[in-house]
Amino acid sequence: MCCDNLEEPLALMKMGLSVILVGHVNFLLGALVHGIVLRQINLHEKARGMGYAISNVVTLISGMMGVVVGILAIILSKNKKSKRLTWSLFSISLVSSLMAGGSTIGLFASLVKTIVNGGRMLLTHCHFPDAIDYSSVTNECPFDPTRVYSTTIILWVGLIVSCSIQMVFSARCLAACVKFLGLPGCP
Q1: Are 166 and 19 in contact (CB under 8 A)?
Q2: What is the pLDDT of residues 67-83, one digit of tens each?
Q3: 3-state DSSP helix/strand/coil percent for the chain, to nearest 5?
Q4: CB count in 10 Å sphere of residue 75
Q5: Are the beta carbons of 68 and 85 closer than 8 angstroms?
Q6: Is there a contact between 4 and 11 (Cβ–Cβ < 8 Å)?
Q7: Three-class SS state of 99
Q8: Is this structure's pTM higher than 0.85?
Q9: Distance (Å, whole) CA 141 – CA 2
């Protein structure tokens, strides 16, 4: 029941294309977060930004894994008899769905931590009392602090949504492989 429609070659190909698209979105949004926000945070004991960097790197790797899952699903849709290809998609979609779930949890934790701290963890190098409302560039901050908080929040929400979608799509490819291999678990 859970993977009946993915037994059709066209449905599996469409799922592969969808996973490729979502994987690219994850990778590009993660690169934007890293390039716009996280490059400003030095990873030392005062900044405490290591959690942000780790969740972002896991998201980048998860996006690349999603692209690989999509490519393998497209290839498998044309060659279902290959057990090697089916096992490859099984193992990589398992890793991809776990990484997407982990990055969703990590990004959500980073989002909550940032909202609770009022964005001050993102702007630890700036020396002014209210970092979020400060809207001018001065010598108080080594980078432009305007819109860092709102940009980060918006990008993280988009990443959380796209990582959740990738987790579901990768799990569907995993369920299809379970069905193709005849393993127990998919009725």
Answers
A1: yes
A2: 999 999 999 988 888 88
A3: 70, 0, 30
A4: 16
A5: no
A6: no
A7: helix
A8: no
A9: 53
